Amino acid sequence: MKRYIKTMYLVIFAFSMFLSCSEEDVTKLPVTALSEDAFWTSEEEVSQAANALYFSLNNVGQIEWDALTEIVFSQSGPSIEISTGGINPGSSLVNSLWTGQYETIRDANWFLDNVDKAGLSESTLAKYKGQVRFFRAWAHYKLLYQFGNVPLVDRVLGVDEGQVEPSSRATVLDFVLSELDQTITELSSSGYTPEYGRITKWAAMALKSRILLYEGTLATDSSMLTESANLANQIMGGGFSLHDNYTELFRPEGEGNSEIILARVNADLPGRYHSLGQWLGPISFHASWSIFTPTRALVDRYPDINGEDISTSLIYDEDNPFDNRDPRLNQSIFDWEEDVDYEGAMFVNNGTWFNFRKWINPDETQEQQSHNDWIVFRLGEVMLNYVEAMNEVNGPSQELLDMINDLRTRGGLGAASDGSDIIVPPIALSGLTKESFREIIKRERIIELAAEGILYYDYHRWRLLETTMNQPAEAVVSLENRVFTAPRDYIWPIPDFELINNPNLTQNSGY
User: Fold this and answer.
1) What's the rounded Cα separation, in Å, for the pair 478 and 308?
2) Which end is more exposed in the chain, N or C (fewer Cβ atoms within 10 Å of the end residue's Cβ)?
3) Buried (b) or exposed (e) across 253-282, using 16+ Cβ within 10 A?
């Protein structure tokens, strides 16, 4: 721990990618190194320090987390190591999660311990503290979710204070929820009018709703689930609305639409591209690599057009698997049985695996030059939070089912090959029980949120990994034999180097 949360006034403020922020691009920042004495003299410097935390916000690499579930196959070494049962205290994803979150916590603590020196008004300070507190809370939550009992660090530590005792999971969770409450209060000021891409009270509420849904599921705690639903309900009344085109939602033309609560801004500027299109696209698209590809398990999750599972559907035709299906299938995954002319870009079947259409921008002209913003929170997920939480507390209702049907209907808007709407019949309430509706909700989360990098948490809290990740990943052919050891793999190992640095830590069971 000493290596990652040491005192900040002994070193240069080490944001190696520390750039400043403008109204148009919250990730564009000019400062590269700051010393303690030369800083905290103006609001501009406070803004720059707050901006630096945005580099820890989830970006396109988050998609790799879906490869730890049954829905995505990965050709990336770090996720292959875990999906095939090789997780260990030296695993790359284990180390990067631990170090990355404590680096974020360190930087947030440095900010919060020093920002009062700038002499700004309380209302001005609040909008910056709220943004930074959000990052500190989320970093702690990511740690407790994967590692269990972890050191809670809420201040800058002295050089000899690095060997921190771990706090219980419950203690860290209480801290996270309290921090988010304060964040919501600080960012609720009428004078705070953030530009697109900034943390808002709505983003903090979305994060808290997500966390309470996860924790309420794990603990079977109806009070947490009720609070998750209450927060989701407030967001749904906050002026957001479903975007009217599911395909467009994940392409550059959908940026800034009314469904997005928070996005990681990836500016369309020279040298500021990412490679998501090349990671996901077929090899015919700019010699793409197909690093992350959908599996047969995901394809089979999409129901028929009526919402019936394909295993019991009377209209599903396995020889024509895209016919009479939920239209989000065709908007998320390319038809592997034919070469596709996708708005002028040719996608050629490779005969081995499937490829995502979701996130692919056919207007890209060069390799490794995608610039989609990455959606962190959106209304579609918040609606599903509400529906799942309320079903667990009270069972199915027409209100809840209407929200599922709203998502299904939106999936059909503009979804036909000629750009017209596909009519998606609603699912009926009659005969639904809490248990049967729960399965519809799970399916809806999987297909609506596929390739957005958050479903690992769902499979984890539903305790489905021990079943789904002990089956081969398949597409056109079998791709990978997978191994998940329960209950061990639900809690990750603490990195070896951290056990050496901090003797107060003990390794999690089974590693």
Assistant:
1) 26
2) C
3) ebbebebbbbbbbbbeeeeebbbbbbbbbb
Q: Which two tokens stand for residue 442?
A: 């799970």
Q: Which helix (H) or strand (E) holds 72?
A: strand 72-74
Asked if 337 contacts 318 with a C-beta cutoff of 8 angstroms, the reply is no
Supply φ then ψ for residue 320, to 5 degrees: -135, 70
E-assigned strand segments in 334-472: 340-342, 345-347, 374-378
CATH number at residue 12: 1.25.40.390
Q: Which domain holds residue 117?
A: 1-71+85-198+467-511
Query: How far lies 394's CA from each of 316, 390, 391, 508, in Å?
Result: 33, 6, 5, 36
Q: Return the closest-CA partner of residue 233 out of 255, 208, 215, 214.
A: 208
Classify strands 72-74 and 292-294 as parallel, antiparallel or unpaired: antiparallel
pLDDT in tens, 136-191: 999 999 999 999 999 999 999 988 888 999 999 999 999 999 999 999 999 998 78
| Within a domain: 120 | yes
CB within 8 A of 38, min separation 6: which ones?
none
